[in-house]
Design goal:
Blueprint lengths: L7 H14 L3 H11 L3 H6 L16 E3 L10 E4 L17 H5 L4 H17 L4 E2 L23 H15 L4 E2 L17 E4 L1 H17 L5 E3 L4 E2 L2 E2 L4 H11 L5 E3 L10 H4 L14 H7 L4 H17 L16 H14 L1 E5 L13 E5 L24 H9 L4 E5 L6 H9 L2 E7 L21 H14 L3 E6 L15 E4 L7 H9 L29 E4 L4 H8 L16 E8 L3 E2 L4 E10 L5 E10 L11 E10 L4 E9 L5 E3 L4 E4 L3 E7 L7 E7 L3 E2 L1
Parallel strand pairs: 2-3, 3-4, 5-7, 5-16, 6-9, 11-12, 11-13, 13-14, 14-15, 18-26
Antiparallel strand pairs: 1-2, 7-8, 10-15, 17-19, 19-22, 20-21, 20-25, 23-24, 24-27, 25-26
The protein binds beta-D-glucopyranose.
Length: 688
């Protein structure tokens, strides 16, 4: 019977938890409320009551509370790029674009704006952020996450959670190892313990410990032989027991709950009771102990009270798509754009030196803000790149808009007659998306024939060819890259993207984004992406760690991005040359803006582990800081590294361990541009 999975030890732990915390007022209040609930009322709180009707985002997903006791219902909305329910919500740039800003403070403000909008419309859980590690750029949902690196994912995920939770509950997802669309409901991922802990779970742990996430969404896929929605190791042993998570877990939608879910730590089945339909009977028959239900309900009530969900909303609907939120969306779009190429200082274009400008490609005037999946947001308007350009240039420049991807002789003549050509192209929801709500995973990493030819033809017709590239992840470039003069990656930039793009093109803003992922030269530089087998194996290496190990040179490395100004980074010094568990070490560099316009640089710190007794990545990002500088300005920038973050997961001890090693510390401005180095000796091998 089902009781088999629930150890007596765990039941004892449940009892101990409720006793030890019953001292606090909050826990006393939780106990009091839960003790007044009938079994029916308790079980009813463990499943949603909102069927999926037609398109996403028409109604807040409901999970009942207990009205007579003043315990509010949960009201949920997606998601990672804004509030999905209803229309006229601020559509922020997708998470990948925001990751490229390398600016957690900005991400916190984005999260805050999303949370505020949801609270204003009566919601209280935002189904975001998505913090799955992007193992391979073919994943259809790349756009929803923060890239390929654990440290960047952690910093951005924590920032989003903290921002969102100023108003509502955040729901980091999808726990865990979720990075394939086509087989997402069935695939079992085998992953060894060390890779699981260090590469796939570390950022979830950060979201819980540092972010204070009140809820987590389990993933559809299975990990090491058990679906995530009933994975006793992931849910009970690691999340709830080891990490001490005192919030609740909800399932991913429809196919996310399973036979053993309630017993193994899933607290809410969404969006309706399916596997949990028989839960009441199971409790009555003794197959599921009532303590399991009590624990789930206590977790929910605790978070409802802690987050003030029983209180009236502190904000009204006027905050939704307000000027303030639109400004944040525009700031995020500008900060997330990555300047990948700028030969002969093609950009910024000086509008006063322009008479005619050609703007080419069907995406120039398209509202291309991301896929049509669960993260869809429907703003009341979208500023397209063309609109942004028109608005910036006014009547002073003649704009030839060629709304096509296949150019004829007449179009080429028009392009030739212009002072510059801006080619807007890239991916759309037809190329990459969530699961069944579009094409799913990508079939190729390049742009395909039509879009490649568009770039080559347009670039062949004008000596100043600027590509504005849209998409949710890495796009391989190949032959067209040498033919263009400038390349600006803008991702899916949200509803204010057009203004941000124009600001960047004409120099009102200076690009400061850095790649949150590697852009490889081709698939052969990446681990295999298998979205047809139902059993796949993940190991320790992907992204820059994989290319570094293999000695491959990518097209553009992780952390790369140019600016309209130049920076020098020098004089690396350190607060300590030796340190141990629990310490933090501050590395300081001087950053100078040696160019002639204001700009921002992202200083990056990577660590290497020569002589490690376990296999490590060649380099790992362990710190970064973004600094804004006026021309000529010089500033000291601190990068604080907690020594514990250098630990690896020691499988033999089932614990994190530091190695008594001389660690190499490299500092610079991308994962392949690290001119400064020093060492840090970690004293004593110590389990943490
Ligand atoms: C997605 C989740 C989303 C949920 C609700 C699922 O299919 O995987 O990310 O939050 O639907 O829309």
């Amino acid at each position: 019977m089902k009781l088999r999975q629930l150890s007596l030890a765990w039941l004892a732990l449940l009892a101990a938890c409720s006793t030890s915390s019953s001292g606090s007022d909050l826990e006393a209040r939780v106990d009091e409320l839960v003790s007044q609930m009938t079994l029916e009322e308790k079980v009813a709180q463990m499943a949603g009551t909102t069927p999926i009707q037609g398109p996403y985002g028409t109604e807040l997903w409901n999970v009942p509370g207990v009205e007579r006791l003043g315990v509010p219902a949960f009201k949920m909305s997606d998601g990672p790029r804004g509030v999905g329910v209803g229309e006229g919500r601020t559509a922020f740039p997708v998470a990948m674009a925001r990751a490229a800003s390398w600016d957690p403070e900005l991400e916190q403000r984005v999260g805050e704006a999303m949370g505020r909008e949801l609270r204003a419309i009566g919601g209280n859980i935002l189904l975001a952020p998505a913090i799955n590690n992007l193992r391979h750029p073919s994943w259809g949902r790349s756009q929803e996450t923060y890239g390929e690196d654990v440290h960047l994912l952690s910093r951005m995920g924590v920032a989003a959670v903290q921002g969102i939770q100023r108003y509502v509950i955040a729901n980091p997802k999808h726990y865990a190892v979720n990075s394939i669309e086509k087989t997402r409901f069935q695939v079992d991922v085998t992953v060894d313990e060390r890779s699981l802990r260090e590469i796939y779970l570390a950022h979830f742990r950060a979201a819980v410990h540092e972010g204070g996430a009140a809820s987590i969404m389990s993933a559809y896929n299975s990990v090491n032989g058990q679906f995530c929605g009933e994975n006793v190791t992931l849910l009970r042993r690691i999340l709830k027991e080891e990490w001490g998570f005192d919030g609740f877990v909800l399932s991913d939608w429809i196919f996310g709950a399973h036979e053993d879910s309630a017993m193994n730590g899933l607290d809410i089945e969404m969006p309706l009771a399916n596997k949990f339909k028989g839960l009441l009977d199971q409790v009555l028959s003794g197959a599921v102990p009532e303590e399991v239900v009590d624990d789930a309900v206590r977790r929910m009530v605790r978070k409802k009270l802690q987050h003030g969900l029983d209180q009236p909303s502190p904000v009204d609907e006027s905050v939704v798509e307000s000027d303030e939120h639109l400004a944040v969306a525009q700031e995020a779009a500008a900060e997330g754009a990555v300047l990948l190429k700028n030969a002969n200082r093609t950009l910024p274009v000086d509008p006063t030196a322009l008479a005619r400008l050609a703007v080419v490609g069907v995406l120039a005037d398209e509202a291309n803000i991301g896929d049509g999946g669960s993260s869809s947001v429907r703003p009341s308007f979208v500023v397209t790149p063309l609109q942004g350009i028109q608005d910036a240039l006014g009547d002073s420049v003649a704009i030839d808009h060629i709304d096509k991807n296949i150019l004829d002789a007449q179009d080429l003549a028009t392009i030739e007659a212009a002072d510059a050509v801006i080619i807007v192209t890239g991916l759309t929801a037809e190329d990459e998306s969530e699961g069944l709500l579009g094409p799913g995973d990508r079939e190729e990493l390049g742009l395909g024939q039509e879009r490649t030819k568009l770039i080559l033809d347009a670039a062949g017709a004008n000596e100043r060819a600027i590509v504005v590239l849209e998409g949710g992840g890495a796009i391989t470039m190949g032959d067209w890259l040498p033919e263009v003069d400038a390349l600006l990656m803008v991702w899916y930039p949200g509803q204010m993207g057009g203004y941000a793009i124009a600001d960047l093109l004409f120099g009102a803003a200076n690009p400061s984004g850095k790649l949150p992922l590697t852009i490889p030269t081709g698939l052969d530089q990446l681990p295999a992406f298998d979205n047809t087998s139902l059993e796949v194996t993940y190991d320790y290496f992907h992204g820059y760690r994989y290319l570094d190990r293999n000695g491959d040179d990518p097209e553009f490395e992780f952390g790369y991005g140019l600016s309209y100004t130049r920076f020098s980074v020098d004089n690396l010094r350190t607060s300590d040359t030796e340190a141990g568990a629990g310490d933090s070490v501050t590395f300081t560099v001087d950053v100078t803006n040696t160019g002639d316009v204001a700009g921002a640089e992202v200083v990056q710190l990577y660590v290497a582990y020569p002589g490690s007794t376990v296999e490590r990545a060649e380099l790992e990002l362990k710190g970064f800081a973004k600094v804004e500088l006026e021309p000529g300005e010089r500033r000291a920038v601190d990068l604080v590294v907690p020594v514990d973050s250098l630990a690896y997961y020691d499988v033999s001890q089932s614990a994190w361990a530091l190695e008594g090693l001389e660690h190499l510390v490299h500092v610079g401005v991308s994962s392949r541009d690290l001119p400064l180095s020093t060492t840090l000796t970690v004293v004593g091998k110590s389990p943490l």
